[in-house]
Design brief:
11 strands; alpha+beta; five-stranded antiparallel β-sheet; six-stranded mixed β-sheet
């Protein structure tokens, strides 16, 4: 009877551990109707408009412009960028338009999309173009020669490519939204960055250590809701502990099954 109880206890522990992991894997909830959502876009990396994850930003521009936004992404997150371009009226256009969304990390390295329609061509009579780019999971640490996505600020660039001269300058509207899926301990690594890759972090560190009393460089004002983690803790430690408990319970159950009932009563003592 001991082994069934051991097995039941192990299954209960496994279920308790799995419940938070399943909950964490859902996409970040997004507010609707947020009046504080940005209504403009920057024209370069330095002037990129900051947006929070789960917030839909809008902007007006002209065909041929580069539109930039920036958002924070922490270790263990897998961001998905979605962009919708509202094109000019069909009567004002004479050719198809190709639009593209690119994502860059805090070092301004272009990040590859795992999947999504990063580039799309709209026919002359199309009213909107929808683009998307799902990045690789952000890692807490990486080798200096690798181009893995790291915690910090990410930049979104939206633009049209190969436009004829007659299409340049036509008014367009854009909507951009970023959501992330929390991958959890399966993406954890043994290491962490000293600081997230956000604008101004390097210059600020140099000035604070110089002792000259100069004015501190302003850092990026956006960060994840729970702050930057990028530490050694992840839910894989929970699974490791549960694995240890299960191994101990399995050992106890195996011993209970193999030890027998002791010395038979028909065997005299001392034999």
């Amino acid at each position: 009877m001991l082994f069934p109880r051991v097995l039941t206890t192990a299954l209960l522990l496994l279920g308790v551990a799995a419940a938070p992991a399943v909950a964490d894997s859902s996409p970040t909830p997004s507010p609707s109707g947020d009046d504080s959502a940005p209504t403009r876009a920057g024209t370069s990396f330095r002037t990129a408009t900051e947006i929070e994850q789960g917030t839909q930003a809008t902007a007006s521009g002209s065909a041929g412009d580069y539109l930039y936004w920036s958002f924070p992404a922490d270790a263990g997150q897998r961001p998905t960028v979605k962009a919708t371009v509202k094109l000019p009226e069909a009567s004002t256009r004479k050719a198809a338009e190709t639009w593209q969304v690119d994502v860059y990390d805090g070092l301004r390295r272009r990040q590859a999309c795992q999947y999504g329609a990063q580039t799309r061509t709209a026919a002359q009579d199309t009213a909107t173009v929808q683009l998307s780019c799902t990045l690789r999971t952000v890692r807490a640490w990486s080798e200096t020669w690798a181009d893995d996505p790291l915690p910090g600020t990410y930049y979104v660039r939206l633009t049209a490519t190969g436009l004829p001269a007659s299409e340049l300058g036509l008014p367009v509207g854009a909507e951009v939204r970023v959501d992330s899926k929390d991958i959890g301990g399966s993406a954890a690594v043994d290491g962490s960055l000293g600081k997230p890759l956000v604008p101004g972090i390097a210059t600020s560190a140099e000035e604070s250590g110089s002792g000259s009393g100069s004015k501190k460089t302003a850092l990026s004002s956006i960060e994840p809701d729970d702050g930057w983690t990028s530490g050694w803790w992840s839910d894989r430690w929970v699974w490791t502990a549960i694995g240890g408990v299960l191994a101990a319970l399995a050992g106890i159950g195996g011993y209970a099954l193999t030890r027998g009932s002791g010395r038979p009563s028909r065997v005299p003592p001392g034999v």
